[in-house]
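In full, the data.
>
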Amino acid sequence: MLAVDFRPSDTGFWYKVSAPPGSAYSAQFIAIGTAGHQTAGELTGRVGTQAEWLHQLVHFPVMHAAVTSLRVERASVSNGGAAPALSAGSDAPSSLPA
């Protein structure tokens, strides 16, 4: 299962990446806040044995946060080779509407 959850906060947002343990992820995000504030950035990390909530600090209250691009590389499979990466966002097929 692959899922990304967001929860806004007064100092940024909380996020949780649910993927197979050991999976590495890289996600581009956008955060929109009060008074016209907005920011974008990148979240990177590795999934532990249990998905956990992590905090991304931004210096304004966040109303909405979303992933604009996501790449997840599953942990190595038993034969020693790396499993193919799962991705969405900027790597989506060009036949999709903009």
